[in-house]
# Entry
Amino acid sequence: MRPSPLMVSSEIGRLRSVLLHRPGKEVENLTPDLMDRLLFDDIPYLEIARQEHDAFAKILTDRGVEVLYLEDLAAEALEDREVRGRFVEDFLAEGHIPGEGTKAALRELFLGLPVREMVDRMMAGVRRTEVPQGRSRSLADRLDTDNPFAVDPLPNLYFTRDPFATIGTGITLNHMRTETRNRETLFAQYIFRHHPRFRDCTIPLWFDRHETTSLEGGDELILSPEALAIGISQRTDAASVEMLARRIFQDGQTFQTVLAFNIPKKRAFMHLDTVFTMVDRDKFTIHPEIEGPLQVFSLTRRGQDVHIEEEHATLEDVLKRTLGLDRVTLIRCAGSDPVDAPREQWNDGSNTLAIAPGEVVVYSRNYVTNRILQENGITTHVMPSSELSRGRGGPRCMSMPLVRDAV
Ligand SMILES: NC(=O)NCCC[C@H](N)C(=O)O
# Structure
C-alpha cells in the first residue's frame, strides 16, 4: 500500500490540490415545489452558474492549484464494469425509486451509457418522462406521484465541502443530515475505494457514511496541525464529533484537541463555516452572532481516551488559547452592520476559501465584507456569484482541499 496522497493540516496552508464539481443539469432540474426538499432557495441559471464556477476554477489554476473534478474522478473510478454495476445498484437502492419496473428501466438506462455520461445522468437526475415504460409495471410503477423525477437530481453536488472532509492524511466519509445529500457521499466512497489515485493508498477513515449520526464537512475546520474546530449544528450531531475525535486521537495524527462549538440550529447557520472561516494565521471572518460567549466543548487526547471539558467563552478567547496567540483579529461580516451583515452572511460573506495565508477567494456580491477584509490586509480574489449563491454556499462550501502546504 502507498502512503496517503492526502495532507491537510490547516485552513490556510498554500492550496496545492482541490476537488470541485462543475454545476451540471442537476441545478436546473429544480422546481419551486422541490426546492425545500433539495435544499435550494432559488433556481440557478445553469449557463451563468457554469461561467461563475469556471471563473472560480481559473482563480485557483492561475495560482498553480491542481483542480480535480468530482465527475471526472467518479467516471475514472467506475471504469471497471463490475464496480460500475455495484455502484448503480447502491445508487438505485438509496434513490427511493417508486417501483421495480422503474428501477429495472433506470438500471438499463445507466448501464447502457458510456461511463462519463452515466455519471452525468445520475448527478442530473432522471425525469419520469425520460424513463422507458417497461413491460413489468408494478402498482408502484403505475402510481402517479407529484414528483416529476424517477430518481432525484443531486443539485448540491457542487458543494464538495460537505460529503467528505480531508483531515490530516485521512478523511471523514460523511453521513449527511438529509436523504438528498446522503446519496452524494456514494461518489466519494467509490472514488476512494476504486480510483487509481487513491485505491492502493493508506487513507484512514475517521467517519463512515453508514454511521447513524450526522456529520457534514461544512462543520469541519482545521485550525492548526494540533487543533480542529467542529460545529455541533443543524447538520452535525455531537455524537459524530466525539466519534471522529476518538478515531483521530487513536491514530496518532498530530491533532491533540477538538473544539466542538455548539452553534444555533438554523438554516442561515447550517454549518460552522457559514459563520466562521480562517483567513490568516491570526485572522478570521465571523458572523457577529457567534462572537459569544459560546458553549464550547474541548475534547483532548488522554492516552487512549478522550477527555471532555465544557466552557462558556468568547470565540476570541478560545482561539487565542488554542492557537497560542496574544491576539486574533475577528473580521465581522459586513462590519456587523444590522442590515449588511445578515444580508451578506446569508449570501456567504463569511464563507471564504483560503488559497494561502492571508489570501482568500470571496463572492463578488459581498462587497462590504470584502472591503473590510482588504482593509485588514487580506488579499481577496473576487469571483462572480449571482447564480451559484442561490444554493446557499460560498467558495469554501464549493471546494474540498486534498493537499495543502504545512503552515
Ligand atoms: N459548507 C456549506 O456551508 N455548504 C453549503 C451547502 C448548501 C446546500 N444547499 C445545503 O443546504 O446543504
Observations:
- Residues 39-40, 156, 159, 161-162, 181, 218, 270-271, 273-274, 391-393, 397 surround citrulline (CB under 6 Å).
